[in-house]
Amino acid sequence: MPQMPLAIFQTLITTLAEGVIFLDADHIVRLCNPAAERLRRVPADAAIGRSFFDLCPSSAQREIRELLAGLREAKIVTGRRLVRTPKRWLEETYSPVLGEDDAYLGTLLISRDFTEQWRLSTENQKLRLSLTPAGRPRPAGPPFIPGRSLKEALGEFEREYIDQALRFHGRKKVETAEALGISRKCLWEKLQRNAANLAIPDLD
Predict the structure, then answer these.
(1) For the chain, what is the domain count?
(2) Is the pLDDT of residue 125 over 60?
(3) Which helix (H) or strand (E) holds 19?
């Protein structure tokens, strides 16, 4: 197969809208294109030659180490992360670069600006949560029903609110608890107490 001239390859990498970073087998940054500089807000001169972990927040390092180890050991084919920065959401895709005899040479990291897709997805999710199954707007709170106590009405509102939060966060209880501003234990107790109403399938 004919080889692409190096000059053309370099031009392609430079003009790509996606951020491109190449990490060698020791996770040292060897390539960082202009889009990666812009998206990650790190100049190439400050990134190239350094460990990739020097450029990652400490809170994400364990996840990234496990991901890179999985690529090196061929336990995973590719890895994907959604990263929130102060001004945007980034979608990061990690793929192994293999040489002869499938020897691991390093990792190719592609970063894309995911902000608009995230905004549209969030707005669509909010719209779906604001409607009843019949497509009608949900009431702001439980309606007054003669004979129903305030405690019962508030309990119904709490169940509905928790159910919406769970669906918004894909039934992930850790993220739901953080969004509601309560502890995981508190959410777990509420889920157990309202399991029948919330139809949670994985409380065991």
Answers:
(1) 2
(2) yes
(3) strand 19-24
